[in-house]
Amino acid sequence: MSLPGSSSLVDHVLDGRYRVLSHLADGGMATVYVALDQRLDRKVALKVMRDDLAKDESFVQRFRREARSAAMLGHPNVVAVYDQGDDQGHVFLAMELVNGLTLRQVMHSEGPLTVRAALDIIDPVLQALGAAHSAGLIHRDVKPENVILREDGTVKVADFGLARAIASSTSTAQTGVLLGTVAYLSPEQVERGIADARSDVYAAGLLLFEMLTGSKAFIGESPIHVAYQHVHSDVPLPSSRVHTVPAGLDHLVARASARDPDRRPRDA
Q1: Tell me, what's the pLDDT at 164?
Q2: Cβ neighbours of residue 109 under 8 Å, at least 6 residues apart?
Q3: Residue 84, SS3?
Q4: 71-76 long-range CB contacts below 8 Å, 24 or more apart?
Q5: Less crowded by CB within 10 Å, the N or C end of the chain?
Q6: What pLDDT, on the 0 to 100 scale, is given for residue 46?
Q7: Of 52, 51, 89, 49, nearest to 66 (Cα)?
Q8: What are the residue ranges of helices labelled H in the chain?
């Protein structure tokens, strides 16, 4: 019996193990469900890739490779990857279910965060990215939607490696496809379609900017306009928008978001 499309998987069992309980969220690459791992009797977040991606064999191979790398991280600030599989064309990840709010939701409800709150969030984000960089893994899609604040205050970073699975560096450069959300892309990702640990540092600098000011560093009428600013403009100082931001944080944001990657810290 064939499974339905990924938009209607509720009440179905994937891989003979994961019973889909409810729909959780939709993203550009996947639909996320709450599922019960019937083997271990625990709830998980089940991320089911878009059908068009699942039909691309090169994507599936990269996806499996990146999932294995992400599963090895084992860091308290990283959303854990438990399993990956393919059930009749439904390519999925089984991950830790984190109850809480994304950083995007927090900023939307609270606006600019206090300096203390911003530092309390960016520090564990950097810890998670640093652990990944030490293991040779780059996130490539650091953005507020991928930072989750758990109900007990723990900060978790999600979706390690998924951006790389969508397209290799070569195909990105050839097709002009921009990985990640354009508001947080480093100049080298825009210009050459390449990323390393310093690209994650750039995005983390923009996260800190946005938490401190309540607004994105670059705003444009189109993604291309925003991408152009990453390449040709320096990130503004946070204090230029919120005058109470300390000079030390202006310096930190400026260093992390330098257009030349050689001027940034080499890793998180």
Answers
A1: 62
A2: none
A3: strand
A4: 72/135, 73/131, 73/132, 73/135, 73/137, 73/160, 75/127, 75/128, 75/131, 75/132, 76/154
A5: N
A6: 94
A7: 49
A8: 51-54, 57-71, 103-110, 115-134, 162-166, 169-175, 187-192, 197-213, 223-232, 247-256
Read off the pLDDT of residues 208-231 as tens digits, 9 standing for 90 and up. 999 999 999 999 888 899 999 999
Whether the predicted pLDDT of 205 surpasses 80: yes
* 141 catalytically annotated: yes
Which of 83, 120, 141, 152 does the annotation list as catalytic?
A: 141
Length of the chain equals 268
HEC-encoded secondary structure of 28-78: CCEEEEEEEECCCCEEEEEEEECHHHHCCHHHHHHHHHHHHHHHCCCCCCE
Checking 31-35 for CB contacts under 8 A at 24+ apart, the result is: 31/6, 31/7, 33/9, 34/97, 35/94
Torsional class of 97: left (φ above 0), alpha (ψ -120 to 50), beta (otherwise):
beta
- How does the average pLDDT of the chain come out, rounded? 88
Q: Which candidate, 73, 181, 70, 179, places its Cα nearest to that of 127?
A: 73
Q: Which tokens in the block code for residue 152?
A: 């007990």
| Helix (H/G/I), strand (E/B), else coil: 96 | strand
Strand arrangement of the beta sheet that strand 155-157 belongs to: 100-102, 147-150, 155-157
